Each structure stands twice: as structure tokens, then as C-alpha cells.
Amino acid sequence: MNEKILSVENISKSFGGVQALDNVSMEIRAGEIHCLSGENGSGKSTIIKIISGYYKPDSGKICIDGKEYSEMSPSESINHGIQVIYQDFSLFPNLSVMENLSINAEVARGSKIINYKRMRETAQQAVKKINLKVDMKAKVADLSVADKQMIAIARALVHEAKVIIMDEATASLTRNEVNSLFRVIHQLKEEGVAIVFVSHKLDEVFEISDSITIFRNGRNVISCKASEMDEERFSFYMTGREIQAKQEKPLVGDPARIMMETRNLTVEGAFEDVSMQLYKGEILGIAGQLGSGRTELAMALFGMATIKDGEILVEGKTVNISSVTKAKQLGIGYVPEDRLTEGLFLEQSLIQNVAVTHLGKLSSKFGFYNKRVAAEETQHWIDTLSISPDNRNNLAQKLSGGNQQKVVLAKWLACNPAILILNGPTVGVDIGAKQDIYDLLNKYASEGMSVIIASDDILEIKKICNRVIIMKGGRINAVLCGEEITEKALVEASV
Amino acid sequence: MISIKKIFNRTETYVILIALLFGIAVETVSGQFFSNTGMVNLARASMVYLVFGLTEMLSLTCAGPDVSYPALASLSAFITAKIFGGDSYGGSIFIPFLVCMAIGAVGGMINGFIMAKFNFPSLIVTLGTSSIFSGIMYGPLKASNTVLHGTMAQFGSAKLFSVTNPGSGLKADLPLQFLIVIILYLIVFFLLRYTIFGRGLYAIGSDKVAAERSGFKTAQITFLSYTLGGAIAAIGGFMYTCNVGAISPSDLMGGEMIIIAACTLGGIRPGAGLGGLFNVIIGVVLLIMIQNNLLMLGIPLYYQDVFTGAIILIGTVVSVNSLRSHSGIKRLG
What we know:
The structure holds two protein chains of two kinds. Chain A is α/β, with parallel strands linked by helices. In chain A, 34% of the residues lie in helices and 26% in strands. Chain A is built from 17 helices and 20 strands. In chain A, the strands form four sheets. Chain A has a six-stranded mixed beta sheet with strand order 6-7-8-3-9-10, with helices on both faces. In chain A, strands 16-17-18-13-19-20 form a six-stranded mixed beta sheet, with helices on both faces. A four-stranded antiparallel beta sheet of chain A has the order 2-1-4-5, with helices on one face. In chain A, strand 11 and strand 12 form a beta hairpin. Chain B has a single domain, classed as Orthogonal Bundle (ABC transporter involved in vitamin B12 uptake, BtuC), CATH 1.10.3470. Helix content of chain B is 69%, strand content 5%. Chain B contains 14 helices and four strands. The A-B interface holds A 52, 54, 74-75, 78, 84, 86, 88-95, 99, 103-104, 106-108, 111-114, 116, 267-270, 296, 299-300, 304-308, 336, 341-342 and B 193-200, 202-203, 205-207, 209-216, 272-274, 326-330, 332-333.
């Protein structure tokens, strides 16, 4: 067993009466890849922020290098070799790549004056470590998401890092990029760096980790070696309940009734020559890696792209989905990829959030908004989708990721769309809520709704879709059906 | 590797183009623009605004607009002039200068403290402190117009050099104070580019949370930035008062909008971590050019505001458009 490099003991932290962490202990050893898992709101991010000095714990201590601290400042944490790669990258979009890579080191050094020569050298060394090729003078705002992620990783490597915490590092990477990230992680492990890999993607967790810690409701419910864990136990510790891995047969649509169709659809800079059909009552998958045109196709079907060429047909009629309003009139609903910025009014109540898509229906004939009807309707959806907590006056931002996603679903289901397009429906949603969302989609599809799911989660696609379109490089690379849909086939067609 | 396309993606390019076109128009009509006197007059007219532009730029870069600086500049200059503005003071100009700066710094600290501690929007904070500063000036201090004598008045009228236009025989003076502008710009340039404080300012404006995570002392940097801004605003007030040769407390009031407009035009966006000295200079100079020369183009006084407003809007629209992506996908929001 390697030496202990970092540990937290009996850490508690509460925010305004809510206990985010309750007497949590865990330890990280040199050269181990330690996976930290847990549902949204389980306290994962809180413990990261305590270790990185961003929050002060109410009680407990942090031990590093054999010294004990009751709290740490961000720069102390960095000086002890702790590096966090945040999910949002924490980069400075308006500064150059060079400065982004080296500014943290410069700050940590404690000098008041900037040495640009030293900064350039630091930056160059950092990109060399992961063989990244990037223009040092480019502004980070102009880079792709994957490049931004790589910059964030390279930046962490600048310091003599002993512990690197990666918060959902793979969330926006393609499989190829994940592979190269994993290679980097293994290389760091060889050098004796401890990696804390925060993720709730099961396959990745089992692929890479040496040990696993799972948080639930602010407590550490288990820390063990990865070899002692299996998927069922993992789900159990995450949710505290048994999730039966029901293997329902995906719904088969009615090929005689084509709800939506595209013919040679092209959107400049996104995808070209896409012809596809959506049957009534099916859940159609659109798979593909980041940048394959998957997301953009889903957006185009909802009128959020400028069509360069080709046409879209809804129930056999050529339509011009020039705007979101038009899409709604045609009976199309859309659940966006990024629910925080595109799908929800975070600072408004659930009622406002659910009502917003169909204000017309909730208003009297003179156009006055009927509050009571809206409240009743919202309550109906809260009950149907088992949104928790079930208070319709809650602000959307108070809900966990899974429940937020249910609210986004509710507001579109309330419009009773004939076609529902979901873009990454379970990104950042925990296992329990995921199953609820699948059940719901299955229920509505079996009642005749046609559903399109654009997702990079292969397991998800395999689980609920009977037909899958696989995008690659802006074109349809394959269409798989029924038994053909296997993990292997999906991966092969998308890489 | 600067390509033509890149150049035309920058706000600065358009501002300079507009300024040049405008200059050529004025030159055609009056023949007085691209001359030694024309340039000196432009420099003299822009002088105080360039100083205020620094204060505004600091605030815009890390947080948002600062509307308190005219009141703070007036208050600092007023107190200083009350103490040193009479015949009885014949000592060095540095003492009143430093006193004025110190008063401004204290006022800036109040802004900075509130901003750093409570994290309120800068507009709200500075609206509040603006009222307080001007309230103190008119209330307890009973500010009114007074003519300056002694050192301060001499300093205000001192010339750096004079030029004479060979054609028209007209003369123009560049005040000695212009040196202060140059020194201030050099200092702020150094601070922004070569210190952790300056880079921190951009980092905070870029992404405050990320800046904290990087180990920047964001509260300290914000506090310092407003303190510095206050001191610079006071210098502007001091320069203005000396230059006019009189205390006129209400003169500067309302000037904040024109400076915010100038900064916006120059390509600075509130709280976006964008903003450099060059942006301030081109924005201020363009606006001053327009304000001072529209009459020469035969545009009536009241239409000048319309014209200025239109320039600001066009400049902003062009720069925002140039930042948009060219992909076919429409982003929400």
C-alpha cells in the first residue's frame, strides 16, 4: 500500500441549515486513481471545495504532508500540490492560452510582478506534458470545448501536483479524447500523483479507478477497492435503493406513419445531406460524438438553425421551421442539452417554469393569465413525474439536476407535443432519476408520442431506442435497428 | 500572424476608421483638423476625459460601470482648492496634488470596500456613493463657485508648449498638465500588464469564480482597483479645477455617461475582463472629436446628442456582431 498523501477527517459543513457534509472522512494515497461518486447534492463538490480551500469546514480537519489543518486557503492548497480541474474548466476566456496555463503558478509564487518569460516557459512545459498542440497566443474563448478541457488539464500539470482532482472531467469529451485523458491519467499515476476522479459514469469509473468512495446525502457511505465493487452495489450505494436493471424491450414505432422526415438536410458548419425518418410512437436515437453534428441536428429539427439546403417534413407536409414558435405550433417540443442556461428559469418558481411554454392555454379568453389553473397544472406534473421536493413554489435552482430535468420535461409534456426532441436528456442526472425519465419517455411513446433522443451515452441509447441514427463528421454514418444495436456496433459506427 | 480578417473582427479598427473619416470630413470643411493646432486642441480637450477614462476602465474591466467618479473628483478637488486655492498658499503644487489624490483614494476605498465585501453590482454601489459624495460637498461643505489664486491657478495655466498654425496664424497651447496624463497612462499600463494585481483584474472580470479558484485575492484586488480609481478620478478633478482656474463643483456632474459611452465605444464591455488603455484612448478621442467638431460640420447643437448616440450604438453593434460565431446554429440567449 502506498503512503497516505491526503486525508480529511470528520469534516462537517452546512449551508444555511442544510447539512452538506456530515462527519466525512476519506483518504487518498500516492499513485492511486480514486473515484469519488455520488448523486447530485451528495456533497462531492462541497468536499472538493473544502480540500481546495474554497470553503471553510465547520469542523474536522484536513491532513496533508503529515500536517493538520482546520481550514485552508486556495493558495495554501495549491502550494501543497493540490490541483482541481473543475467541470466548467475555470479558465479565463479573455486571456491567452499562455496566460491561462501559467497564471495560477505565477499567483501561487506570491510575487507581485509578472515575469512573461517565465510564464511562457511554464506554459510550454505544460502543453508538452500532454502533447497538446495549441496556439499559445489564441484567446481561450476561441477554442473548442475539448481544447479548453485539455488546457485545464495542462494547467493543473504546471504545478508539482501531488493530488489532481478532476470534477466530471469527461463530461464534454468524445470517447477518443477520454482515451487520451485516461492515458495521461495513467502516466501521472506512474509518476506517483494521486488522481481523484469525480464521475458518475459507471463504465468510466470501473475502467479507470483503483479505489472508489461513494457519498450519499453528505456522508461517506463506502470507501473500498475498485475490485471489491460491482455495478449493482455501486447503484445501491449511490441511491440507497435497489434499482432493478429492468431490461424492457424498446418500443417499436409504426413505419407506416411517418411523423417527421428530413430530406438532404444541410446546416452550414454542422452537418450535411441528412435524410431520416421518425415513426409514430418510437424513441429514435441520434448518436455520435461531440462535433459529429448530433446536437446540431436535434436543434435544427426544432427550428434553431439556419437551413442551407434540404427540407423538413412534418406528417408528410413540407414545413419551414423558421423559429421556435413555429416549431411549437407544429407540435414539436424540445428539451435542451444545457438545462441551466437554455431550459429553465432558475430564479423562478416551478409554476412559472412549467407554465411558460403554454401561457395561452392557461389564460382566459381575454388573455389574462390564470394563476390558479397554472398552479393546479404544475401540481399535476409534479405528482406525475414525482418531482421532489414537491413544492410548486420552490425556485428551480433549489432542485437537484435530475429533478430540474424533470421540470424541463414537464413544461414540454404540458404542451402535449406530438414530437418531443431531447438533447442529452440525462446529462448530469443521477441513476435514480435517470430511470424515472426513461420510464416516462416509454410511457408517453407507448401512448403515441414520437421521441427523438440525441445522446452520447451509448448505454442510454441502447437501453431505450429501437432505431438509432449514428452521426459522424456531419453525416449519417449508419442506421441501426433492433438487434443490431449493440455497444460495439454503436462505438464502431461513431468513431 | 495578424490576418486582415482578424483586424476587421476588432472594434478598435472600426473606431479608428470612423475617427479618420470624421477627421477627413472636418478637415475638408474647415481645413483646421489635421494641423498642429488642431491636434493640440484635441489633446487639450481630451486631457481630463482621458484621466476619467482610466477610472471608468478599471471599474468596467473587473465589475461594471462606476458612476460615482464625477462626484468624487469634484469633492476631492473642492476640498483641496478650499485649503490650497487662495493667495496665501504659494508652496509646491505637489502638496495639494497629493492631498487631492489622497481624498480621492479614501472615497475610492469606500466604493472598493462595499464592492469587495458585499459583492453588489457596481452601478448600485456607485450610485449610492455618488449621492453621498455630492451631498457632503453641497451640504456640510457648502460648495459654491470660487476663483482660484496662487500655486494651483499658476499650475493650471502653465504650458508644456505652444504651436502656431502657419496658415491661419492661430495659436494653441498644450498645458503642462498633459504630462500627468502621460505619466498616469504609463503607470496604469505597467500595473495592468506586469503585475498580479493587473492580471487579476482581468481574471476577475473574465470569470470571478475562476479567479478565486486560481488563488487571486479577489476582494483585495477589487478594493485596490477602486482605491486606485478614486485617486485617479481625484487627479482628473484636480486637473480640471486648476485648468479652469476656479472651483465649479457642478461642472463635472453628469460626465459619467459620456465616459461610459466612450469606453463602450472603445470596445470595453462591463464586467467582461476586456479593456485596455488603447480602448480608452480611442473611445475618448473619438467622442471628444465629435463633440468639438460637429458645429464645424454645420450640425446644429441639439442634433449633436443624436449623432453621438448613433455613433455609440453603431460602434457597439458592429463590435458585438464581430464577436458572434459564424456557424449556422443559433444560440439561445
